[in-house]
TrEMBL record:
Entry-linked SUPFAM superfamilies: P-loop containing nucleoside triphosphate hydrolases (SSF52540), post-AAA+ oligomerization domain-like (SSF48019)
Domain AAA+ ATPase: 37-179
Compositionally biased tracts (Polar residues): 535-544
Primary gene name: dnaX
UniProt-listed NCBIfam families: dnaX_nterm, PRK05563.1
Name this polypeptide is given: DNA-directed DNA polymerase
UniProt entry keywords in alphabetical sequence: ATP-binding, DNA replication, DNA-directed DNA polymerase, Metal-binding, Nucleotide-binding, Nucleotidyltransferase, Transferase, Zinc
Taxonomic path: Bacteria, Bacillati, Bacillota, Bacilli, Bacillales
């Protein structure tokens, strides 16, 4: 007879032989004993946890000539033929390769026929989530009201892909991952029956690599036995499964403890050179630091350790790490494991993770991995703590000095804030524009202003929205801002200044120099210019009146009001004009003086 794999030879034939799944076994056995079996079952759970085995055992117990019984006898003709797979009344159907509606209709057509030699006709549909929607729809009515002699057992690893109408018509049993202890126990039984010796540490390595799947564990055990021969050792199990040994974990943890980045990276590259999978390394490291955290916080729970033993070396190592440091390591590796899934450079990610772990000072910070605080930051924190302590002491003593300092603080803060963001008005440039300003120049600017604004970038025109040209000469003009902060922002924005100059050149054919002034500052500068140039005198003295000696005053008296004053008259707010501008826009309003 040809060689058969362990997972086929040692497939459980009774509920007692099944590892784990106590809730499933007890429920099914009680239903068999009290004759309360139903017509449809759904077995869901991870791969290799016993779903198909439990279905076949249940089919045998249901059809056993001595039953229905709590356990099949495995001696009667019905039990033997079901075990061998030759019983025509127990039909195993692979939905992965027979997913079309035609195959399902064939089952539905035959289900009405009575069983040939058994009490019940049992349909075991494996990987049922692979059926098409049409196949599910065809199965639906039969699954709800099958003949009295028919029982359906649906098995799947992905129950979320099943229609709710199917799930609601079945008794659902969720199979759980098998624990490492149960896997080791089963492997020990298999090796004893096969007369093969094995180290306990080797079986533990295989159980950890199986990740809760008994079939995976027996397959790896089969492979390790083929590699090693009559005795299975931990080194051989590590080599075949690709896991990391305790000594490597110990060396790597010591390198992290001493902040030796070179040693840590050397060990990592050694593991990768030996063929270790990088994603598996990240997973093993997370489990390792989880074990250290367990030893650090609950040293009595050594039975829960997964990749290391609870000997003195690891107990001492766990005590050398602060819990916050271990939490930070797990956070870093967890984030790295997620990032590696979407990258072709997984090695770079795990190397970066090791360097972060070397630099970690013991503060767990999700997302950042608890990066080390700089000495300067620590000094600032210490200084702030001292200041807070002093203030608390002053408040406790009555708050005298603190209260006085509190009274001065708002004013100082306000002044410093204003000085920091105050706009310095270029008074000289403003006076220069005013001295040469004409009415015709300001009208040219104002007539083209609205069209010019439409040609500028949206962000620039938004900043200039509440502005107004107030005085202009042949080569420059003064632009008044309603808010000082907008004036400051515009003056510091080189892109806006160049864009405004270019837009004006295109509209007027001249390259103007723009002087920015906030509204409050413009009023003060204008008053100062009027006072210095004597315009107020000219307006206050009667016509023909002269200074001492009967002669007119000097050049400080103008023959006519300066252009900027005439322009200022245009800017005086008239309620009718303001309302018209709100309704129709400034560009459509022209004011005529009657």
């Amino acid at each position: 007879m040809s060689y058969q794999a362990f997972y086929r030879v040692y497939r459980p034939q009774t509920f007692h032989e099944m590892s784990g799944q106590q809730h499933v076994k007890q429920t099914l056995q009680n239903a068999l004993l009290h004759n309360k079996t139903t017509h449809a079952y759904l077995f869901s759970g991870p791969r290799g946890t016993g779903k198909t085995s439990a279905a076949k055992i249940f089919a045998k117990a249901l059809n056993c000539e001595n039953g229905p019984a709590k356990e099949p006898c495995n001696e009667c003709e019905t039990c033997r033929t079901i075990t061998e797979g030759s019983n025509t009344d127990v039909i195993e159907f692979d939905a992965a390769s027979n997913s079309r509606v035609e195959e399902m209709r064939d089952i539905i057509e035959k289900v009405r026929y009575a069983p040939a030699s058994s009490k019940y006709k049992v349909y075991i549909i494996d990987e049922v989530h692979m059926l098409s929607n049409s196949a599910f729809n065809a199965l639906l009515k039969t699954l709800e009201e099958p003949p009295a002699h028919a029982v359906f057992i649906l098995a799947t690893t992905e129950p979320h892909k099943l229609p709710l109408t199917i799930i609601s018509r079945c008794q659902r049993f969720d199979f759980k991952p098998i624990t490492a202890a149960e896997i080791v126990e089963r492997m020990t039984h298999v090796l004893k029956d096969a007369d093969i010796e094995a180290d306990a540490s080797a079986l533990k390595v295989i159980a950890q690599a199986a990740s809760g799947g008994m079939r995976d564990a027996l397959s790896m055990l089969d492979q390790v036995v083929s590699f090693s021969g009559d005795r299975v050792t931990a080194e051989e199990a590590l080599l075949v499964t690709g896991s990391v040994g305790e000594d490597i974990f110990l060396q790597l943890a010591e390198a992290l403890l001493t902040k030796d980045a070179g040693a840590a990276l050397t060990l990592l590259n050694q593991l990768i050179a030996e063929g270790k999978d990088v994603s598996r390394l990240a997973e093993d490291l997370i489990t390792f630091f989880r074990d250290l955290l367990l030893l650090r916080t609950a040293p009595d729970l050594t039975d829960l350790l997964e990749v290391i033993s609870g000997d003195e070396r690891f107990v001492a190592l766990a005590q050398a790490f602060e819990p916050d440091t271990l939490y930070a390591y797990i956070d870093i590796l967890g984030v790295t494991q997620q990032e590696m899934r979407f990258s072709n450079h997984a090695k770079v990610y795990i190397e970066s993770a090791l360097l972060k772990m070397v630099q970690t000072r013991g503060t767990s910070n999700s997302g950042t991995g608890g990066a080390a605080a700089s000495p300067e930051l620590e000094q600032k924190i210490a200084a702030l703590e001292r200041i807070v302590a002093e203030l608390q002491q002053q408040l406790a003593n009555g708050g005298g000095p603190a209260a006085q300092a509190g009274e001065k603080t708002p004013a100082l803060r306000k002044n410093s804030s204003n000085n920091a963001r105050a706009y310095k008005i270029p008074t000289g440039k403003v006076h220069q524009v005013l001295s040469a300003a004409t009415k015709q120049d300001i009208q040219v600017i104002r007539e083209e202003w609205a069209r010019m604004m439409q040609t500028m970038q949206r962000s620039h025109s938004a900043l200039l929205e509440e502005t107004e040209p107030v005085a202009a000469s042949d080569s420059a003009f003064v632009l008044k801002f309603k808010y000082e902060i907008h004036c400051l922002m515009a003056s510091e924005n080189a892109s806006l200044r160049s864009g405004l100059a270019e837009a004006l050149r295109q509209q007027t054919g001249k390259a103007y120099d723009v002087v920015y002034v906030p509204e409050e500052g413009w009023l003060k500068v204008r008053e100062d210019f009027i006072r210095k140039s004597g315009v107020s005198k000219q307006q206050s003295q009667p016509e023909g009146n002269s200074a001492a000696g009967g002669e007119p005053t000097d050049a400080s008296v103008f023959d006519e009001p300066p252009a900027f004053l005439e322009g200022a008259e245009l800017t005086q707010e008239d309620p009718i004009v303001s309302e018209a501008e709100k309704l129709f826009g400034k560009e459509f309003i022209t004011v005529h003086d009657e």
